[in-house]
Amino acid sequence: MVATGSSQIEFLESLVTAPDIAWGQVELFHLDEYIGLSGDHPASFQHYIRERILARVPIGRAWLLDGAADPEEECKRVGEAITAAPVDVAFAGIGENGHLAFNDPPADFETEEPFIVVELAERGRLQQVREGWFASIEEVPCTAISMSIGQILKARAILCLVSGARKAEAVKLCLDGDIGPTAPASALRLHQNATVFLDREAAALLQSA
User: Fold this and answer.
1) Which class for 111: exposed (0-12), middle (13-18), buried (19 or more C-beta within 10 A)?
2) Tens-digit pLDDT profile for residues 114-128
3) Is residue 84, in this structure, part of any structural domain at all?
4) Edge to edge, what strands does the sheet with 194-198 contain?
């Protein structure tokens, strides 16, 4: 399960250039996608994955979310595929508002559906503008398909990468605060094999930093 975004770029570059990975045996899913963006839109996560992974290594099979398709049907199509077998590893990040995938606060911690349609919070949409994916907030879609919290936690291992001072408040909220829907990425603390990698700026507000 692949995360997208600025914090993942360096990690994914290291991954696709690593030796001796049997890419042909890999089945890939991604965490989320904007509703209303086609796969060739530069800000779509399908485009991100094609450019940074699929064009670089021979993935066995990739289940790419189609933001231009019917959202409910897309949730069903990819949801059935991801529940067919256990997921070995999930890559994730933490948003400026604490979101995990596109599960903005208050996130649904109860749903059993693997993929859900979500409304995007304004702060998360502004993050996309600040990171340069869109020119203005008016261009950022208001809805998305997201892997659910419950489905993310079903992965056997989770690797979460977070960087930058803008994430420090969210990191503190999710790692030092209460576990619950108002801090979606706090759900990572419920997993027995989740590792969070922080740079100094992202970790600056933690009690142990």
Assistant:
1) middle
2) 999 999 999 889 988
3) yes
4) 89-92, 157-162, 194-198
In a domain, 154, yes or no: yes
Total domains, the chain: 1
Residue 152 lies in a domain: yes
Could you tell me where the beta strands, DSSP code E, fall in 39-162? Answer: 61-63, 89-92, 115-119, 143-147, 157-162
- Segment 63-81 shows an average pLDDT of 97
Whole domain around residue 30: which residue ranges? 6-116+144-198
Three-state DSSP string of the chain: CECCCHHHHHHHHHHHCCCCCCHHHCEEEECEEECCCCCCCCCCHHHHHHHHHHCCCCCCEEECCCCCCCHHHHHHHHHHHHCCCCCCEEEECCCCCCCECCECCCCCCCCCCCEEEEECCHHHHHHHHHCCCCCCHHHCCCEEEEECHHHHCCCCEEEEEECCHHHHHHHHHHHHCCCECCEHHHHHHHCCCEEEEECCCCCCCCCCC
How far is it, in rounded angstroms, from Cα 92 to Cα 5?
A: 10
Q: What predicted TM-score, i.e. pTM, was given to this entire model?
A: 0.94
| Residue 66 is assigned to a structural domain of this protein | yes
Residue 84 belongs to domain with CATH number: 3.40.50.1360
Calpha distance 24→160 (Å, rounded): 24
